[in-house]
UniProtKB/TrEMBL annotation:
PROSITE patterns per UniProt: WD_REPEATS_1, WD_REPEATS_2, WD_REPEATS_REGION, ZF_FYVE
Name of the protein this chain belongs to: FYVE-type domain-containing protein
FYVE-type domain: residues covered: 307-378
Keywords: Metal-binding, Repeat, WD repeat, Zinc, Zinc-finger
Molecular function in Gene Ontology: zinc ion binding
Gene Ontology cellular component annotations, sorted alphabetically: early endosome
GO biological process: positive regulation of toll-like receptor 3 signaling pathway; positive regulation of toll-like receptor 4 signaling pathway
WD repeat residues: 233-254, 264-305
TM helices/strands, residue ranges: none
Zinc among keywords: yes
UniProt keyword DNA repair, yes or no: no
């Protein structure tokens, strides 16, 4: 989205077709004297080529710039088509009035929605040959930058969140505002269930709010506290995944209606991108340091216990340093409090001197456990349930196209990468003999994959 100084963020969106790719391009401010392209900026989204490009912007070191001068913004929309020569060339170049902050593209209807820094959402319709783009409507969605956006063809709504601390939903047929809900902090991320019209909105205060949207009203279903960051919603299993700055991922079992949550810890930095692959039952998470984790969610996992409160060690009964009375009575110094990650008991450092992994609870790295729990962990309990990979650059956004085996990552280091996702997530090949492959619909394909997964447990 719109960026300042060296904090550059790219957002890239795959098209379902193998040829066109829609992306946001960069427009430099006049104060920049040099634009250096270190690699060919050819976005080749195909099975035969992998793209890795770097855009580097360097001001003239002989001049001094004020901080306000070192700004640039995304103001253009480009559609790149693959020519007969095998290269990608821009077929559409469109300039908008305000910097672009987010984008939503619907392939079947060829409708693209652009969120802007001024709070507006602009809708365009792309021609069948991808050589022309016509303006359809401009929606006055927010009073500040649009942070995230989803278009629903089923309800003909565009749902968006913004830095004016609100979520709004508008009718794309009439262009009118249907409703708005305000939060106590900036709304940062959004997921939407097209069938039930439920919206999941994360904000900077660490809350995830679940809203039921109606045409002229809404209702607040629940609020999940203690997490903020990236969101991903799986409508089939009705699971919500959230990533945050505490380096962890939480799975919220919304469909189970039992308040079940699973904690996944395997990153060293803030988790900024999530994707759940329904076919293989795997969760892909990316962090700010470039770490990528693939979690096996098709296995029995246990919830991490709640940490217990106590004024003394629940193993040796030595007082903690705030327990003045017991310290005076026993004439001993207070100890620092720790918690065992396996049982949740409050223990001192002497009673929890050992470390161990425990993947069934989501701890892929060694964590503190009490001595009693350490003795109960068997060697087979330490078998990893996740694989880790290195993206080799800061990852702020990530998208995947499993059907073509492609993954795109981009970040504030001004690098956009399109990688072969089969190197990270092995492809699942299924041969059907029930009907001709020409007559197989996507919905039918997903249905049979669900049956095969349940009956064969893979």
């Amino acid at each position: 989205g719109g960026c300042e100084r060296s904090d550059v963020k790219f957002q890239l969106c795959f098209s379902s077709d193998s040829s066109p790719l829609i992306c946001l391009s960069l427009k430099l401010a006049p104060t920049y004297s040099k634009l250096e392209i270190t690699n060919a900026f050819m976005v080749c989204v195909s099975k035969r080529m992998i793209f890795e490009g770097t855009l580097k912007i360097t001001p003239d070191i002989a001049e001094r710039f004020e901080s306000d001068d070192l700004t640039f913004s995304f103001r253009t929309i480009r559609v790149w088509l693959k020519r007969d020569s095998g290269q990608y060339w821009p077929s559409i170049y469109h300039t908008v009035s305000s910097p672009c902050s987010c984008m939503s593209y619907h392939h079947d209807s060829r409708r693209i929605f652009i969120g802007q820094d001024n709070g507006a959402v602009v809708e365009f319709l792309i021609s069948e040959d991808f050589n022309k783009m016509n303006h359809v409507k401009t929606y006055p969605a927010h009073q500040n930058r649009v942070s995230d956006m989803v278009f629903s063809l089923e309800s003909e709504w565009v749902v968006s969140t913004g830095h004016d601390k609100s979520v709004s939903w508008m009718c794309t047929q009439s262009g009118s505002m249907l409703g708005r809900h305000y939060f106590t902090a900036w709304a940062s991320c959004l997921q939407y269930d097209h069938e039930t019209q439920h919206a999941f909105v994360g904000d900077y205060s660490g809350q995830i709010t679940l809203l039921k949207l109606e045409k002229q009203t809404y209702s607040t279903i629940t609020t999940l506290k203690g997490h903020e960051g990236a969101l991903w919603w799986d409508p089939v299993q009705r699971l919500l995944f959230s990533g945050a700055s505490d380096h962890s991922v939480i799975m919220w079992d919304i469909g189970g209606r039992k308040g079940r949550t699973l904690l996944l810890q395997g990153h060293h930095e803030r988790v900024q991108a999530l994707r759940y692959l329904q076919l293989t039952r795997q969760l892909v998470s990316c962090s700010a340091d470039g770490g990528m984790a693939v979690w096996n969610m098709d296995t029995q996992r246990e919830e991490a216990p709640q940490w217990l409160d106590s004024d003394s060690c629940q193993k040796c009964e030595q007082p903690f340093f705030w327990n003045i009375k017991q310290m005076w009575d026993t004439k001993t110094l207070g100890l620092r409090q720790h918690h065992c990650r396996k049982c949740g008991k409050a223990v001192c450092g002497k009673c929890s001197s050992k470390r161990s992994t425990f993947p069934i609870m989501g701890f892929e790295f060694p964590v503190r456990v009490c001595d009693a729990c350490f003795d109960t962990i068997k060697e087979e309990d330490r078998t990893p349930l996740a694989t880790f990979h290195e993206g080799k650059h800061n990852i702020a956004h990530m998208d995947m196209d499993p059907s073509r085996g492609l993954m795109v990552t981009c970040g504030s280091d001004r690098i956009v990468k399109v990688n072969n996702s089969s190197l990270i997530v092995p492809a699942c090949v299924i041969v059907f003999t029930l009907m001709p492959i020409q007559a197989l619909r996507i919905s039918t394909f997903q249905h049979y994959c669900q049956i095969i997964h349940e009956e064969n447990n893979w």
